[in-house]
Design goal:
Elements: E1 4-13, E2 16-25, E3 38-48, E4 54-64, E5 69-78, E6 83-90, E7 93-95, E8 98-102, E9 105-111, E10 122-131, E11 135-138, E12 141-146, E13 155-165, E14 171-175, E15 180-184, E16 187-193, E17 202-207
Parallel strand pairs: 2-5, 3-13
Antiparallel strand pairs: 1-2, 3-4, 4-10, 5-9, 6-7, 6-10, 8-9, 11-12, 12-17, 13-16, 14-17, 15-16
Length: 208
């Protein structure tokens, strides 16, 4: 589900590197060596509607831990999801994403506006999209699957919130076990951290 890849892009001035941050979803890659350049925190929300369409909010916080390296481009790749209605903000400003689809894969790329420079400063990317690939109904059962994270090295935080309508029926199973489970405004809420699913995706079934 997840891998972080960093590449040199171009040199702004002596001593300053501009980098591209990659987020690969549902692909398998070797994990590159981490250069201790950033702390990366992911916060994902999957809000599933009664017709099975899922609204996804994908927030990435990139904290600089060096003074002379900054991220300027962010790319998101979805291999196992058909996504649409894509919108992106970088550091609170709307940007026009470049969306490319090829061989069942969707790549979203954006330039980070007003990127923060300096140790301890943060750049925040807010990606929103919709998909019908996460919740699939088979007979009277709703099957839900979120692909696994391919690698977690170099990621300081990875939190996932899943909201499932109670109209889907009773929980048949959910794996792995969530960190927190609660009811909220007609929905089942499940919260996960990277410690919950280091080697597996999230799968669940609901129905009566």
């Amino acid at each position: 589900m997840d891998i972080l890849k960093k590449e040199r892009n171009r040199v702004l001035k002596p001593g300053v590197l501009l980098l591209t941050i990659f987020f690969f979803f549902g692909k398998s890659f070797a994990q590159p060596a981490q250069d201790e350049q950033f702390l990366i925190d992911y916060n994902l929300e999957y809000n599933i509607s009664e017709n099975g369409e899922t609204n996804v909010i994908h927030k990435t916080t990139i904290t600089n831990i060096q003074n002379d390296v900054i991220p300027t481009t962010y790319s998101f790749s979805a291999k196992q999801l058909e996504i649409y209605d894509v919108s992106v903000q970088t550091n609170g400003k709307e940007v026009n994403p470049k969306v490319e689809k090829k061989d069942g894969e969707t790549m979203v790329s954006v330039t980070i506006k007003d990127y923060a420079i300096g140790k301890g400063r943060q750049n925040i990317i807010l990606l929103k999209y919709k998909t019908k690939s996460i919740a699939i109904k088979s007979g009277e059962i709703w099957n839900i699957y979120i692909p696994k994270i391919q690698a977690l090295e170099g990621i300081s935080g990875y939190d996932v919130k899943i909201s499932i309508p109670k109209s889907f029926g009773n929980k048949v199973y959910i794996s792995p076990a969530p960190e927190i489970q609660k009811d909220e405004e007609g929905n089942f809420i499940f919260l996960f951290t990277k410690n919950n699913f280091q080697s597996t995706g999230i799968s669940a079934a609901f129905g009566d």
